[in-house]
């Protein structure tokens, strides 16, 4: 049940999909003969490709779990039984099966379906996601709650092999095994990074080990062994594990208290359904290892699942994607700077938490493979690893999205800043990010980093300044953070040589005006330039959030009646708050208006639509200045 009324698709949007048009909800799916599931999967893939080719979004992951998604809703009584998807990139098939198939044309559009599971969008979305490795912990909480309330419900966490490598996943596995709680974890291995399936024998073995005969023997054996001397019981227990370890890779999970089954073919309905039915009736912590092919059913995505993981609108016949903007993106500016800086300094080491392509590090990784580390989905470890490198005289650069740096806040404080270590943070996707929505927005980094001692924090206003501030941060002998937005800037040429650094804590006047001064911190500089010319305002490109250019603020406060601070960060605790704090401590009396992101989460939409909603487009800024002008005229000085 969606709380969104808007859709780009008509009520008969599923006419081209005969089976899907009859399967509006999982209860309809469960009425189908099992033989109909394979053709249903074919229709779902066609709908996924048709919809995502128009809207853009995450494609390859969803294509890979079509059979698994159908089997889960076919076997389990959703929404009473809970399905918890990790990350959410793979959840489009789940949306199609849970009453939202006709709205797929509105995916990631303003007022349309979210690109991730979202609790207020559907009762079938039992947990909101967007960041990785949360599913097992959330599902365990739900399972414990069900037991406490006396509710007999199944809880299933579906997690990918990449997300399983993160610390949160293992923390949850550890607790679940210790509690001996009823919980099913499905490990979706879509890159064979854990193990390869071993064909028909593996599928047969999984069905056997999840069946009643083996389960009753296993539990009965435990009961019998409990009355024997512990040395004998330990010996037999070890024998069981060694025998299972000879034919399957589940010893680690068994040691953590899980009954491991698999690996099985995640595209074989007969095996999937039978195994899930067996495991539904088992108790305790269980883990099913399913091997799938990312991008399954679309040749372009099968051949290059990384490129087709997240796509812009594309031609479904050729796979060719639309390109937005002709200039360099800020991400590309960072990648170019990184390669240039590494050429001049062999102490530079680059680190990413599983975001090589997204952070613009592909070329660097090829040129400097011995100075490049992808640590996986492990943001906390990325910063502590960087701190260790810095302790030994290397100069680590951590490329990370603003929204993911949130996960390493303790390490930023305790391991990097407290020790005043020379770590450079290149923080991408700062500000709003468009269609990915609130889970991926970089709305808070200025606020959460500004309060940390020893930090230098910078925000470039254009591409050339981004390159120069990256060099400034790198040359600074302590922790320094450069935040820059997603996408392209105003189109300023960067140049090809290693950039000159800028003086720390110094901004600049871009335009002289009267009465009103606009103090811009970062990505909204080009918009502010237009506004300043329209109202004859002074425009200050502040560049540094910490340390502030206090001399420039003093000058502007002494010569203008109104100061407008402008940032693509939440107002609370952000750059504008820093200006307010300084003015208050210095005793300056001047009207200040802080413009930034509001105290609420902004839903998915285009970046421009999000700025408009926040009042940070040119019209919104002009309107705020006009209001401030009217109010200030009547103040008694």
UniProtKB/TrEMBL annotation:
Keyword Ribonucleoprotein: no
Enzymatic reactions: D-glyceraldehyde 3-phosphate + pyruvate + H(+) = 1-deoxy-D-xylulose 5-phosphate + CO2
Sequence positions that bind Mg(2+): 161, 190
CDD domains assigned: TPP_DXS (cd02007), TPP_PYR_DXS_TK_like (cd07033)
GO terms, molecular function: 1-deoxy-D-xylulose-5-phosphate synthase activity; magnesium ion binding; thiamine pyrophosphate binding
Listed cofactors: thiamine diphosphate; Mg(2+)
Annotated Gene Ontology cellular component terms: cytosol
Subunit-structure text: Homodimer.
Entry function: Catalyzes the acyloin condensation reaction between C atoms 2 and 3 of pyruvate and glyceraldehyde 3-phosphate to yield 1-deoxy-D-xylulose-5-phosphate (DXP).
Family: Belongs to the transketolase family. DXPS subfamily.
Protein name: 1-deoxy-D-xylulose-5-phosphate synthase
Organism whose genome encodes this protein: Candidatus Thiodiazotropha endolucinida
């Amino acid at each position: 049940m969606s709380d969104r009324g808007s859709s780009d698709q008509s009520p008969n949007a599923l006419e081209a999909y005969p089976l899907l048009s009859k399967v509006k909800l999982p209860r309809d799916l469960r009425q189908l003969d099992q033989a109909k599931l394979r053709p249903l999967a074919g229709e779902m893939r066609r709908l996924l490709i048709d919809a995502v080719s128009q809207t853009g979004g995450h494609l390859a992951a969803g294509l890979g779990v079509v059979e698994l998604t159908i089997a889960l809703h076919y076997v389990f009584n959703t929404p009473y039984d809970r399905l918890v998807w990790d990350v959410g990139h793979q959840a489009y098939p789940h949306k199609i099966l849970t009453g939202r198939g006709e709205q797929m044309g509105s995916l990631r559009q303003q007022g349309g379906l979210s690109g991730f599971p979202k609790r207020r969008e559907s009762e079938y979305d039992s947990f909101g996601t967007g960041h990785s490795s949360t599913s097992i912990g959330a599902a365990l909480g739900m399972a414990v709650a069900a037991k406490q309330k006396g509710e007999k419900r199944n809880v299933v966490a579906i997690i990918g092999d990449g997300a399983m490598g993160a610390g949160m996943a293992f923390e949850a596995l550890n607790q679940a095994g210790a509690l001996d709680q009823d919980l099913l974890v499905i490990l979706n291995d879509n890159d064979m990074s854990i193990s390869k399936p071993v064909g028909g024998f593996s599928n047969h073995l999984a069905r056997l080990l999840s069946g009643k005969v083996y389960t009753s023997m296993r539990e009965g054996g435990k009961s019998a062994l409990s009355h024997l001397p512990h040395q004998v019981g330990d010996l037999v227990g070890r024998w069981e594990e060694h025998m299972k370890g000879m034919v399957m890779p589940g010893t680690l999970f068994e040691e953590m208290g899980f009954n491991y089954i698999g690996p099985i073919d995640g595209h074989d309905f007969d095996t999937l359904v039978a195994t899930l039915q067996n495991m539904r009736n088992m108790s305790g912590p269980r883990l099913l290892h399913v091997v799938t092919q990312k991008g399954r059913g679309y040749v372009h995505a099968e051949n290059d699942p990384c490129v087709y993981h997240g796509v812009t609108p594309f031609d479904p016949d050729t796979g060719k994607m639309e390109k937005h903007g002709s200039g360099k993106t800020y991400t590309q500016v960072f990648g170019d700077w990184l390669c240039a800086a590494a050429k001049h300094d062999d102490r530079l080491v680059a680190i990413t938490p599983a975001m090589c392509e997204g952070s613009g590090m592909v070329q660097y990784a090829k040129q400097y493979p011995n100075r490049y580390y992808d640590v996986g989905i492990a943001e906390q470890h990325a910063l502590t690893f960087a701190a260790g490198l810095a302790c030994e005289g290397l100069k680590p650069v951590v490329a990370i999205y603003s929204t993911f740096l949130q996960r390493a806040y303790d390490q930023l404080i305790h391991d990097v800043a407290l020790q005043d270590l020379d770590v450079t943070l290149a923080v991408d996707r700062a500000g709003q990010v468009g269609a990915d929505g609130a889970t991926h927005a970089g709305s808070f980094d200025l606020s959460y980093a500004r309060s940390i001692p020893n930090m230098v924090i910078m925000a470039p206003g254009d591409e050339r300044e981004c390159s120069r501030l990256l060099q400034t941060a790198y040359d600074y002998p302590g922790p320094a953070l450069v935040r820059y937005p997603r996408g392209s800037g105003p189109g300023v040429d960067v140049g090809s040589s290693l950039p000159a650094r800028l003086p720390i804590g110094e901004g600049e006047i871009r335009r002289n005006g009267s009465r009103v001064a606009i103090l811009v911190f970062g990505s909204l500089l080009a918009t502010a330039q237009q506004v300043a010319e329209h109202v004859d305002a002074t425009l200050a490109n502040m560049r540094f959030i910490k340390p502030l250019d206090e001399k420039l603020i003093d000058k502007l406060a002494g010569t203008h009646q109104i100061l407008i601070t402008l940032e693509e960060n939440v107002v609370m605790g952000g750059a504008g708050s820093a200006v307010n704090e300084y003015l208050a401590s210095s005793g300056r009396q001047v009207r200040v208006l802080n413009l930034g992101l509001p105290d609420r989460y902004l839903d998915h939409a285009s970046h421009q639509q999000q700025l408009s909603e926040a009042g940070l487009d040119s019209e919104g800024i002009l309107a705020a200045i006009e209001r401030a002008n009217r109010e200030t005229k009547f103040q008694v000085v």
